[in-house]
Amino acid sequence: MNSNISRTFLRASGALVLLLLALTSLACANASAQNSPAPTVVAVQATAVPPTPMPTTAPLSNSNNDSAADGARVAGNFVSANQAAIAFQTPGRLKTYQVKEGDKVHAGDALARLDTTILEFQIAQAQAAVNLAKARLAQTQSPVSAETQAAAQAALKAAEANFARVSKGPSADELAVAKTNLDRAKAALDQAQALYDRAGGATNPYSGMLPTSVGLQQATAGYEAALAGFNLAKNHPTAAELAGAASQLAQAKSAVAQLTPTPENLAIAQAGVEQAQAALDLAQASLANATITAPIDGTVVLTGPKVGEYVNPGVPIVTVADLTKMQVIANVDELTLSGLKVGQPATLFVDALDGNTLPARISKIGLFATSQGGVTSVPITLDVDSANANVYPGLSATIQFNAQ
Description:
Largest sheet: 6 strands, antiparallel, barrel
Shape: rod-shaped
Order of helices and strands: HEEEEEEHHHHHHEEEEEHEEEEE
Oligomer: single chain
Radius of gyration: 54 Å
């Protein structure tokens, strides 16, 4: 009997142990479920302008067969609906800013200037070239006096006669006269030499004081002159003489031609004026482009290079944005996109507003999808009622789409 009681007690003890283990396991499971953290929505800052990053969407609820977009949250960034990044059109060294970040500006206000020292020098040069070209045109167009015309014609005739004479060379009579003069000079030299020799010549210590010595010197000079004249006549014309006569004739013809301007000369002078004026216009445009102005009313939200730095055309210098017309740009995936429509309301959660929210409405759904990391997304734009909100480009926002 005692053995039966022992076996019964053992069976009851085993069952009790199993029951306690089961209860313990169930209690642990419940505790684990209660301590497990609930999922949170994290707003990831996205780039405000294309190319856009991979979207981050987190649907909060989708009960009762609601649209996948109802209650979904997406990260986005604020941008201005009217924003301009202004750059110089000409290269140069940044001289000064007329504004600083935070300043309010109106369209046409000066924002920044380049150093214009070289540009001003180029304008002065171009203006001088224009003045010279205009003077040449006026000179070409103006009539000349009768006296000037007569003098030019006379100079032309003289140059023509001289060129003809030089080109023809000496005549037979001219050569004969030169030969006769040479013969006479030679005879005079011989006679003077003979008289000098009779007087003792070089052996007489006083020969330099005798009249025969003076006569010999004069006869020698006369002979040398006659010989030079004969050689000149015999070898005339030389290449240098021909070139000089031709040049004189060309100059005389040009002077006469300029007395009456031809259509070609007038066209050339007019073209010179136009070319010089074009260079001046270009220099003045470069000077005007050395100052950038605000194209819109707004607030200066960003300035670029430092004063003194060299900047190239197209490099943004000042960014102006209208902070009264703000938008939010975000990317949504295909599932969320299926439930969105233009005009659909949304609520913006903005960390910079200390938990305050802003109303928004979808104004544009992009027509070009991009894929990144295996997720296909489409950019959307929301208009924001930000007239009294302190938001500016680049701030992040979490968008919650509301049911229509």
